[in-house]
Specification:
The chain is an alpha/beta fold and about 325 residues long. It is about 45% helix and about 20% strand. It is elongated, with a radius of gyration of 25 Å.
């Protein structure tokens, strides 16, 4: 081999060695980035709908390569509906310097945003984040908050209700006065219902202790009841339905779990999928995207959930064109 060939061989070997070192260093850096991820989760209360969001989140984090016990530390805090717990737990999650904090429901997101403007807060199911004061716009949040909205198309929901109950004249709406997302959705529902020529009766509750009395008053005076995305009402759906059934008044909620618990029909959200989409946003943030520039994700608008058994029990005939598009939940 001549000198030129020897030089070429030496240079080639050097390049291969250098490339291996760089690639190995990058791989080691990637492993390092993926072995110390800390994610906090603040959940308002225990309920199948919210538990399903968390389950979807945890499953998708694993699908994305983040697994508890291997490269992910996950700290779930459940306030069980207590505002003072929300505040205390928010402080805890922030003080422990989590890389990202997931907020399941609007109250959780508001509580966390009061404590930190630096750690990214990822919403898991917040209906009106702009109106709640969490972000500046849904296209460009402009704060440390982004995530997934569970907002549903109210005009479609009310249109379906009119199709199912063509003789409906009076609609009741029940929501929790302290839940900003419920209040906003209830206001919109009232406005839309009145534009369709319906008389609307709105009743609010402060907590689950009010459910029985308020539902009794409402069910005795309306043809149907609409329930917005409302965590407190959802947690007491069995009580609501027990009363409305006695009056043969159908309930039209806003989530699949509430339909399963006795509602007749909803154009709602798949709570598990909200969790899945929330995890995807978390991973994007962990990879370097800025929360301030990450547009809000809308989870599966327009899914029709139908409780066919409840409809039959209330002698309600569901038109075939609705039944054919619906996801039956009994």
């Amino acid at each position: 081999m001549n000198n030129r060939g020897k030089v070429f061989t030496i240079v080639l070997i050097f390049c291969l060695i250098f490339g291996y070192i760089v690639e190995n260093r990058n791989n080691n850096e990637e492993v390092k980035q993926r072995t110390d991820v800390k994610v906090g989760v603040l959940q308002l209360l225990s309920h199948p709908a919210l538990d399903s969001i968390y389950k979807g989140f945890e499953d998708e984090m694993k699908n994305q390569g983040y697994e508890v016990g291997k490269n992910l530390k996950l700290d779930l805090q459940n306030a069980q509906g207590d505002q003072s717990n929300l505040a205390t737990m928010s402080e805890k999650l922030v003080s422990e310097k989590n890389d990202v904090i997931v907020a399941i429901t609007t109250p959780s997101a508001l509580s966390l945003s009061n404590v930190t403007k630096d750690i990214p807060i990822i919403m898991g199911g917040v209906t009106y984040p702009v109106e709640a004061g969490l972000i500046k716009s849904e296209e460009k949040p402009g704060t440390n908050v982004t995530g997934v909205s569970d907002r549903t198309p109210l005009d479609q929901q009310l249109s379906l209700m009119k199709d199912i109950l063509p003789n409906m004249k009076k609609l009741g709406i029940i929501y929790t006065s302290s839940e900003d997302n419920s209040m906003k959705q209830a206001e919109q529902a009232k406005e839309l219902a009145e534009s369709l020529g319906l008389e609307v009766v709105v009743k609010t509750i402060s907590n689950t202790n009010d459910i029985q009395q308020v539902t009794e008053v409402l069910a005795s005076s309306v043809d149907a009841i609409y329930v917005p995305i409302d965590n407190t009402v959802a947690s007491a759906m069995s009580t609501v339905v027990k009363i409305t059934d006695s009056y043969k008044v159908p309930v039209f909620p806003s989530a699949d779990t509430m339909v399963k618990d006795g509602g007749v029909l909803a154009i709602g959200v798949d709570q598990y999928n909200i969790g899945v989409e929330t995890a995807k946003v978390v991973v994007d943030i962990l990879k370097g995207q800025e929360a301030a520039n990450k547009s809000i994700v809308f989870a599966n608008e327009g899914i029709i959930y139908l409780n066919e058994e409840k409809a039959k029990e209330l002698n309600i005939i569901i038109p075939e064109h609705i039944k054919n598009k619906a996801q039956v939940i009994n």
